[in-house]
Design brief:
This protein is α+β, with helices and mostly antiparallel strands. It is built from six helices and six strands, in the order H-H-E-E-E-E-E-E-H-H-H-H.
Length: 164
């Protein structure tokens, strides 16, 4: 065999070689965990607590102190009253409380309502895009267009005149 060709083949073999003489030994086997194995372990731990499924829950909102909301839509909710444990599983989204406002008002407690009032006062005192500062008095003047107009005539007398 040609000595140059032999050296070239040996150089290629050295590049491909992963282990062999003089290479470090692997200390332990790396176990790759998947989400399904974690979920199975969680479910087995919950089964030990004797949790029961709670059907019919459409959404779960967890409100943080900084005004963010962890929102679950159609979650799987499990509870164990003896262990004082609730498990909420499903797709979670983190949103600001202002994004959830119209529908979340009936879920807020007294403490959250006071935080919401502080947030509303901060929003009303913010600077608009044109650079002028808008106060609550300016906002009240804008809302006058939506008010019901005052009655000018007495409509009761007109209905007394009509006899059907």
């Amino acid at each position: 065999m040609n000595p140059e060709k032999l050296k070239q083949l040996q150089a290629q073999a050295a590049q491909v070689r992963i282990g062999g003489k003089g290479s470090a030994r692997r200390k332990k086997k790396v176990v790759h965990r998947t989400a399904t194995t974690d979920d199975k372990k969680l479910q087995s731990s919950l089964k030990k607590l004797a949790v029961n499924n709670i059907p019919g829950i459409e959404e779960v909102n967890m409100i943080k102190e900084d005004g963010q909301v962890i929102h679950f839509n159609n979650p799987k909710v499990q509870a164990s009253l003896a262990a004082n444990t609730f498990a909420v599983t499903g797709h979670a989204e983190t949103k600001q409380i202002t994004e959830m406002l119209p529908g979340i008002l009936n879920q807020l407690g007294a403490e959250s309502l006071s935080n919401l009032k502080k947030l509303a006062s901060n929003v009303t005192n913010t600077v608009p895009t044109d650079g002028s500062k808008q106060t609550t008095e300016d906002i009240d003047e804008d809302d006058d267009d939506d008010d019901v107009p005052d009655l000018v005539e007495n409509f009761d007398e007109a209905s007394k005149g009509e006899t059907a």
